[in-house]
From TrEMBL:
Stored Gene3D superfamilies: Cupredoxins - blue copper proteins
All copies of domain Plastocyanin-like, residue ranges: 88-192, 218-332
SUPFAM superfamilies, per database record: Cupredoxins (SSF49503)
Location in the cell: Periplasm
Protein name as catalogued: Multicopper oxidase domain-containing protein
PROSITE patterns: MULTICOPPER_OXIDASE2, TAT
Record-level GO cellular component terms: periplasmic space
Entry-linked InterPro entries: Cu-oxidase-like_N (IPR011707), Cu-oxidase_C (IPR011706), Cu-oxidase_fam (IPR045087), Cu_oxidase_Cu_BS (IPR002355), Cupredoxin (IPR008972), TAT_signal (IPR006311)
CDD domains, sorted: CuRO_1_2dMco_1, CuRO_D2_2dMcoN_like
Pfam families hit by this protein: Cu-oxidase_2, Cu-oxidase_3
Main localization of the protein described in the UniProt heading: periplasm
GO molecular function, one term: oxidoreductase activity
Biased composition (Basic and acidic residues): 447-458
Length: 458
């Protein structure tokens, strides 16, 4: 598993046979379409079967199917893939049909579904259909409900998608390794009546996290909590596409959490309601307004709101360490410490050493060399400067003139004159200090000095 060559060496003989069968669609197997890049595919309009309103998978795609005697047949191929997390960083992962996460599967409530799963990994796997109410033997827990799918083998799962809702799929075989390597995908079962739960834009993605040492390409699979790449669908900001909506649209965002910690998802400029979980839709009377909702490990949440406020609005995990990219958490806090010259001295002893700023973080502006194949901790440039974000962060772009069904990035919001925060240049009132009653003698607040350019220093 340490490099791509060993993947190929291990499974070369069996892979050739399977590749010919699945790609050519011979021997009765449905075609296994492959996606080679991390762009957001347009919604997959159902060509046959019952109609539904398709979802948009953020930096992902939906898997085409074929109808055979009234059954919707899909073909998933578990295989090593390359995934670009953001421009500048590519990881060697495991996924499905060319990407991690795998493609979104969209079906309609009541559909009979047959899923062929071909294993092109160097080890056994299985697929568990998280949230589906199905026969025990189709549940995909290797050793319990079925034997594991050995390398080179294809298994068939078949069940009726009984309930409309928000689900996911992932292995239930060597799970820790396989999920740490990126094996997961989204599943949406649409309601029978497309007018039910209808929205104008329906975005879906999985929250996932990886530990990839700067300069390397393979996730460390033994990491339990100290991950360094926090993603929406295996993309880190600024690699995550914006959620583009038309002003007045009813918007749904569905997120599922397959990381090892919870993620309080927060939106700016709007209030939402949690309308669904992986257990189903929440009755309207049981919903309440929120601007942040926690998505715990193994949970899925669907949130809904009317995007009535034009602008560029942050949508992100509220854990501040999850809106950063690769960083060491053992970096000392140096706010208030004059360490000018110290970093240079240390970096001679410890190559790659970088100290946090004495003025605070402001790492976005630090000019430092980063190793090959990793991401700066905080990146992205907006119309007013550095955004200083990474990881689980993107923008919802609400525009009055966005066309229905158009997901193209409209660029930066142009705020109406007089509606943007501005610098005060008039007189300041005299400072008033409260008496420092219980502070020991001699203890003072951090001093602020100014350098020649007028920048504050603490
Ligand atoms: Cu988080």
């Amino acid at each position: 598993m340490s490099n791509r060559r060993s993947f190929l060496a291990n499974g070369a003989a069996t892979l050739i046979g399977v590749g010919l069968v699945s790609r050519a669609g011979a021997a009765g197997l449905p075609e296994a379409p492959v996606q080679s890049n991390a762009s957001t595919a347009p919604p997959l309009m159902p060509p046959d079967g019952r109609p539904y309103n398709p979802v948009v998978t953020l930096n992902g795609w939906s898997l085409p199917w074929r109808m055979k005697d009234g059954v919707k047949e899909f073909h998933l191929v578990a295989e090593p893939v390359l995934r670009e997390f953001a421009p500048g960083m590519v990881a060697k992962m495991w996924g499905y049909n060319g990407q991690s996460p795998g493609p979104t599967i969209e079906v309609v409530e009541g559909d009979r579904v047959r899923i062929f799963v071909t294993n092109k990994l160097p080890e056994h796997t299985s697929v568990h259909w998280h949230g589906q109410i199905l026969p025990s033997g189709m549940d995909g827990v290797s050793g319990v409900s079925q034997p594991a799918i050995q390398p080179g083998k294809t298994f068939v799962y078949e069940f009726v998608a009984k309930h409309a809702g928000t689900f996911m799929y992932h292995p239930h075989a060597d799970e820790m390794t396989q999920m740490a390597m990126g094996m997961m995908g989204f599943w949406v079962t649409h309601p029978k009546d497309p007018r039910q739960h209808a929205v104008d834009r329906d975005f879906v993605f999985l929250l996932s996290a990886y530990d990839i040492e700067p300069g390397s390409m393979v996730p460390k699979v033994n990491t339990m909590t100290d991950f360094n790449i926090w993603t929406f669908n295996s993309r880190a900001f600024p690699g995550i596409d914006p959620l583009v909506v038309r002003q007045g649209d009813r918007v749904r965002i569905r997120a599922g959490n397959l990381t090892m910690t919870n993620h309080p998802m927060h939106i700016h400029g709007h209030r939402f309601e949690v309308t669904g979980t992986d257990g189903g839709w929440i009755p309207p009377a049981a919903r309440w307004p929120e601007v942040t909702t926690d998505v715990a490990v193994g949970q899925m949440r669907a949130i809904e709101f009317i995007a009535d406020n034009p602008g560029d609005w942050a949508f992100h995990c509220h854990k501040s360490h999850h809106t950063m990219n690769a960083m060491g958490h053992s970096v000392p806090t140096l706010i208030g410490v004059d360490h000018s010259g110290v970093a240079e001295k240390i970096s001679k002893l410890v190559p790659g050493y970088m100290a946090m700023g004495e003025k605070g973080g402001s790492m976005g502006g630090m000019e430092m060399e980063i190793p090959e194949n990793t991401l700066p901790m905080m990146t992205g440039t907006g119309p007013h400067g550095e955004i200083e974000m990474g990881g689980m962060f993107t923008l919802m772009k609400v525009r009055p003139d966005q066309k229905r069904g158009d997901y193209t990035d409209p660029g930066w919001y142009r705020a109406p004159k007089g509606s943007t925060a501005y610098e005060w240049t008039g007189e300041l009132p005299p400072a008033v200090s409260a008496p420092a009653a219980s502070v020991p003698a001699g203890v003072k607040p951090l001093e602020v000095t100014r350098d020649k350019k007028g920048h504050d220093h603490h």
